[in-house]
Amino acid sequence: MLQERRSVKLRFSLVLLIPVLLTVIPNTEVANAQTSSVDSLGIYINQANICWSAGESDLQLSVDLLSEVSKRDAQRFYQLATDFYYWSLRNADFSSEKETILSEFERIKPLLPDSLQKRWKELIENEDRQALQNIVGFWEINDPYVSTKENERLIEHWQRIHYARNNFTITKEPPYGTDERGVYYVRLGMPDSRTLKTLRLNLVIGPEGETFDFELGNVIQSDIEIWEYSELGDDFFLLFGERDGWGEYGLRKSPMELIPENIRVQLGASGFRNQSTMRKLSKNVAQYGVYQQLAPLHTHFSNMYSSMQTSLSAYSIGYSGTNKFIQAPFIADPLSRVQINNNLMAAPGSKTTAVTENGILSTQQEIYRFLAQDGKQQIVLALQPNPTNEHMKNKESLFLSNRISVYDKNWNLAANIEDPKKVTDSLLSVPSLYLLEEPLNEFNAFYSSELIDTTYYGVTIPGKVTQKASAIVSTTGRKKLTWPESFNKEDTLLISDIILGLEQEFDDARVPITPTLDRTFEPNTDLMVYFEAYNIPEEGYSFTYYFEKHRWLLGNKRPSDKPSVTIVNDKLNSDRNTQLFALSLSELGSGTYDLFFEFRPVGETGEDRLVRTRKIELVVD
After folding, report:
1. pTM, two decimal places
2. pLDDT of amino acid 546
3. Alpha-carbon distance 548 to 614, whole Å?
4. Looking at the predicted structure, is the pLDDT value of residue 581 above 70?
5. Which domains are delineated in the chain?
6. Contact assessment for residue 476 and residue 432, using Cβ atoms and an 8 Å cutoff
7. 414-433 in b/e burial notation, b at 16+ Cβ within 10 A?
8. 385: closest CA among 448, 465, 471?
């Protein structure tokens, strides 16, 4: 049976990458403040409407409006605040608004990787308008709901700033007028676990009952916090506290930063006179005491405390309790730091509540590499959402909207496609296919899938998705696509990625079959295989395929009654070849298998071969 397929070609070239900064006034609905409450929000809204009517931008006003709308959670004005902010940024005047632009950069700076912070600052100092496009582009690609006019992540950014200003102000520093807890709250959101403790260190008891007092004035007392984010891994945490026990409050790279430099153990008349020995003893005792109190709070500290006890036990013979602490090789370990690996996204772990509140739409995606006739790389992106029964309650009024956006290294939108379709069983049963062509290096692509309900105040708007008549039921959020490694075109023989699908009729699209993304098939059926070969030598090429079954604890094994198959393609008279064939799954029982394909030029028999592997599941329906 011929399955319904959708193939949309998305082409873009360098011609599209020239940034065009328009000064056209956005077509937006005028938002008037309620006359019964003439307050700051009403004043900002009226001023914004006046500016728009006059064709004037005002970056500071747009920031004030964003701040006030977010503080009050005034959702009816989210779109106005977002549009006016974007428009004012794109049309900002360096001669009169440079300080405002710098302030806005400082507010976004904690969300950027180090590699971009310096570059953006230089652009602003040089009054390069690319800096303004950078800021707009940053917020656009972090917009979790691409089908709505407002940017929920931008609104949430300001809501985090207000929360931080109200809750994290032991010290008040730029860019948010908070201590460093506020900076990391704005950057990463609310931690999954937040532990508060007061460290008080005036007496340390060693592993064998040794006791150490600290000299008067050297007692450590520090309020600390430990923040953990589950999505950043069990080993990741942030430790906040006072430097040297009573200094500035902020992020500490190590608990050693909590210990005063002049800390000194109190000894009797027979104590040490050597200053360096006394300093080492005091530091080691203090470090042991700090980790002793931190050990119950996190496994990292517990492991370090155990390591210290082990080090001390190694010196338990022949050394006094005091000398043990001098000789033991303690390590002042640094803590893990926030890593930002993606040059076009906010810090990993950014907890955007705008997405999670409405439920994540589970979506399978896979990328396949091919070469065009002119030798340029092509990427076929397959997307297939898997909505739940809860998502499908109002199926008759649902649309599925897939969007793919491609940005160049300067944050300019190079290509964009939005593909809304009425939800049907056939639409959800197979993936949608999108073709992206070179240039792909130095580009960043993002995708999202959204289920949108076109019911508006109880009335279904038939036929299309409109901004006013749409409500997002569920979304993947904006997700970054990772480009696969490009082909090495100098290789003698190149093979595309291999597509596997259910038995089906095929068509003349760029990819003639619809892939099965979960690669789940039934035993004793046929699966379809498609791939392409390039740079084929004159003597041709051959390929061999075979199966290996996964066996728990015993390793993989080839089924004895399913031998390998070799196919020889010689005298092709072409340097390109396509293969589309059915592969039998007979003689294979249920389970997990690796399907291997080995390719080599005809006549070569050595170990030098090209291998492609696809894992499949065979299950009985």
Report:
1. 0.73
2. 95
3. 11
4. yes
5. 195-327 (no CATH), 494-618 (2.60.40.2550)
6. no
7. bbebebbebbeeebbebbbb
8. 448
